[in-house]
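To: structure desk
From: M.T.
Subject: fold request, one chain
Message: Could you run this one when you get a chance? Sequence is below, nothing fancy, just the single chain.
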Amino acid sequence: MTERALSTYFSLNRRYYRSVNLVRDLDKPDSVQGYVPTERSVDALRRILGALGNPNAHRAWTITGVYGTGKSAFSHYLLSLCADEKNSVRAEAYEIAQGSFPVESAELEAINVHIPAKGLLRAATTGQREPLSWSIARALITAAERFWHKKKKPDFWPLLTDWEVELDTRHPQISHQELLNLLKAMVTAAQTPMLLVVDELGKALEYAAHNQGVQDLYLLQQIAELDIKGDHQVYFLGLLHQSFAGYSERLAAVEQSEWTKIQGRFEDIPFAESPSQMTRLIGRAIDSSQADPILYAVHQGATRWFEALAPVLTENDIADDVLAKAYPLHPITALVLPLLCTRYAQNDRSLFTFLTSEEPYGLQEFMATAQVEGEKVPTLKLYQLYDYFVESVTGLSSRINLQRWVEIQGLIEDARDRAPETIQILKTIGILNLITTTGSLRATPQLVAFALCDSPDDDDLENWLKAIQELQHRSLITYRSQLQELRIWQGSDFSIEAAIYELIEQERAPIADLLSQAYPLQQVVPQRHYTTTGTLRYFEQRYGDSRLDLDKLTCSSGEYDGLILYWLDRTELKSVPDKTLDGKPLVIVEVAKLDVLATRAQEFQVLKKIWKTAPELQNDGVARREVKQRLTDAERLLDETVRQTFDWANSQNRCWIEGTLRRMPNARTFQSALSEVCDRTYPQTPILDNELINRRVLTSQGAKARRELIEAMLERADQVAA
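Reply: Done. Structure tokens follow.
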């Protein structure tokens, strides 16, 4: 048999490439055809439909699960059931329910009793990286147009029309209170409950995390707690790839705690298959219809693996035919992949992304490059899985709160110059260490050796066992005889979170002081004034609060031509002086968003102190690496926060220029205002467009020229220039 790539024999079933789009498919009967309620979706259906008939029941849920677990398909089915009975999509959904549930089941009863003939107000949207209010507004506009299509338009219709126009602009102005009022008005006018579903809610949470959008979190809380007079309420369902904490992990520890509190307003419904079910799902996703020439070898290999891995497979409820269907994944890879995706995958980077994407180190690339030699079928092994999760899933290794991952990656990075076989062993042990330290999937020498072979009776098995033993002797890996487990990580007893909270409680400095230390401001040059006059003028930038007497402000040095003070205080300014005490122009910027800025500045300063002074870090390499990573992340986050906070285009900051409140729509306007101030304050500035001369301190060349000129004037006073 000639050598051929694995992709000749294996591919991915096309239906696993396409996911349900709630907005696009909402009223398409064919999009709900073939839906099969699973155990987890039946449980979710029971809980949500049961709440429709219970005024005291929970009205807000999140469905959490990695990509490919059926969250969107379930939500689409639920929305289809809640359509008007004249809608063909409801008939299709009801037929599926009749075929799936017994006649007297609680599910059928809930459908028949709690869903009215005219259906629910169905509002669906797909979250985007934008304010959550914009996404929900789009959903409400579409829902209203669908529900009142041939009916008399309610009083709030002009507002919807205005919003539709605004949403086509760059920065629509949709307040949260307006949104909440509209939810109430729509339900009252429709006289039926509303089901509001936000798919990809995580994208909105990511936006909130990146843009200090804590108000978006409070909007979610307000919707969850919304109480409307009467029998009809708003029911909210958000679809997530991970918990709120997962999206907030790049934030400061105090902010993460706030996010967790808000998530407590939602009843979470996990859509997580057991590892064995996910392994079976992998088998259904892989198409082996073209594998006839090697199918016998695949099934023979699966049978041998089933015998060799009996304890592992029995514990995970896996049969030999499941192993065969999962080829060309190594059987141990097929078991580990779902666990790794569930615990460490980032948003849509998950099992089906690994299977279907063209990313480096993914299954598609492996099948395109690996060659079948005779009856020997290559398999994708654990060390290749490690390569995908570290090299392809950007940002995973830098995520905070993953001390074990950080240590494992660090140790493997340190061994990069060693033999390829050594690296493969370390990666294999590292992956197994990440998913478990107990049970049959722990990193025993035998299991690690098996994970490196294409067949359990591979001639290389003994060689791998010897190589593992050699690494033990060289102390590159350790063997814990009590657990019969190989490890490349040793763990840390230092609790970084506890240290952060302890120092935060001890040191509660004003935000102005925190930022002065953590993020000192540089001087500013009014650019247009410089280009027109040739004179460089400098405005000092400084933080301040109510401890300052604004009437006694002075520049810290006589070299400065003006002062810009950033007011970091919750005391609102009423009036400000136009100049400093030493007669320089004064600009005061009243910063609006202080809470997030204070939290992130505080955490950065605390982490700096831990890094410099914590004695535990001297002998704890794991904790030292994580604190360093946390410090890097905190510095980057503070930098982003300061830029966003002081960004005129995206903030509500107020600005006083020489005692007058001015609107500053963007940075260019602010720069122009500074130049205007210099033009007014220094009107007699000579225009001298020579930067070698027109400066406070001469350059070395300028000083030399001045010296030579003075010498010439003194020594050759009798000479007249031509």
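Reply (cont.): Residues 393-401 have pLDDT under 50 and may be disordered. Let me know if you need anything else for the meeting.
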